[in-house]
Amino acid sequence: LVLPTLKSRCQRLEIAACLPAEAIVWLAKRHPDIEEADLQSLYDLTGQQPLAADQLLQSGEPNQVLNLVAGLQHWLKGEVTPIQAGQRLHVKERPEMVFDVLFRAIAEAHRHQSGSQIKMKSESVRHLSELLKGRFDHWHLCQLSDRTVKARQAVLSGHNLNAALLIDQFLLNTEITEPVSCAGSSNGAHVCLKQASPVRAE
Fold first, then answer.
1. H helices, E strands: number in the chain
2. How confident is the model at residue 184 (pLDDT cuts 50, 70, 90)?
């Protein structure tokens, strides 16, 4: 709380977020060696947060971040094992980012299933959401969404000592299968979720 005598001497400044086009121009000036398309993708993948995108570019992991969506797509299609996927999805500086991207794609898939015509700005995340929509029914999307949130919280926990292990555990607990009738599914989902084991680092 601020004392009234101090508050009366303060000035309130309303600072609006910069426009996407302005953010891309700013990032391009700071990182002239990065192609504009990659800057746009990084900007979208960080939730259109220019400072976060700038931090990732400075960390030396931009390619790892750009490969997040492709890595998730390969995993959902069953083209790689969970362990192989985990190696592709671990971003050292921001290990929670894989769950940020996945959650946004799940939310977009939910909107599409409910009949929404609003399209996500990020083309790469939109493609991932279309894959999720085609492979998960509503019940499994809700289950995956819940697990994604809990896994992200575990990664960001002060007690977490091994983010890569938590990502591997999350992937192992989501089993990619051929179309079968899963518990709680009414249309034979392509993806079944294993019984979740406790998420903790070792």
1. 11, 2
2. very low
